[in-house]
Amino acid sequence: MRDEEGVGELSPAVVEALVGNHRRFLGFLERRVGSRALAEELLQSAYVKTLEKGGELEDGEGAVTWFYRLLRNALVDHYRRQGAEGRALEREAREASEVGPDPELTRTVCACLHDLLPTLKPEYAELVRQVDLEGRSVPEVAREAGITANNAGVRLHRARQALKKQLERSCGTCAAHGCLDCTCGQPGGGCKTPA
Length: 195
Prior knowledge:
Blueprint: H1 12-20, H2 22-33, H3 36-53, H4 60-98, H5 103-108, H6 112-116, H7 122-133, H8 138-145, H9 149-171, H10 173-177
Helix pairs in contact: 1-4, 2-3, 3-4, 4-9, 7-9, 8-9
């Protein structure tokens, strides 16, 4: 039976089987991903998909088998996404370490950047300072921090995203359209934008 939104109702036997096996499902996922929080997230997503399936699941035991198949597919998708993200971050770390600072960019960096660095997590601020402002390589900074270059690349990516959000909050449109001569923090300030 389907309700008005197209989501089918689960039979009481299916609900009992899926709820009764919650701990087993969670344990199954946690052993494979190594994180209870991630396992819970994957499990909740699987429950949502099950609700969407609804009335198509008729018997309790068959639903459990189907649900394990759904969990396995969720794990495959998770690792596929994780692998793609890891490759992208490795590529970014490699590119960041290969390319030195652009002198033009260094001259045109918004003065607000220096004021906003202390608003980031200390390890993020330090990475941005060392890699982006001082032009040091990611592997070199990672070695000194006692972390892997890949981990440093991930942190640098997250640091840049956090800094971007802070700049957009602080400078508004200046940050959004490319500030070349920022005077946001000065009375009557603004910026000269590229033509």
